Amino acid sequence: MHKFISEQPASVDELQARLHKMADKELRAFGLAAAYMCSEKANRGKPPLVAFDIQLEAARIEWKRRRDEKKRDRKR
Fold this sequence. Notes:
Structural class: mainly alpha
Strand content: under 5%
Helix content: over 70%
């Protein structure tokens, strides 16, 4: 299970640093879990906690950063 922040969003900088250290497989699993925590099913039709939205967006940003970095490396 991934360590999520329940109600109070952590420092975005701390979250980004944590995600940056994850392997691709871990980041993908974290992102999938965060996406589930933002789903209607997980929240019984209610809006997700802001903290989960923040974590999902941070995971997406980190994934995009890695993808873009790999594209740049292939062009060299």
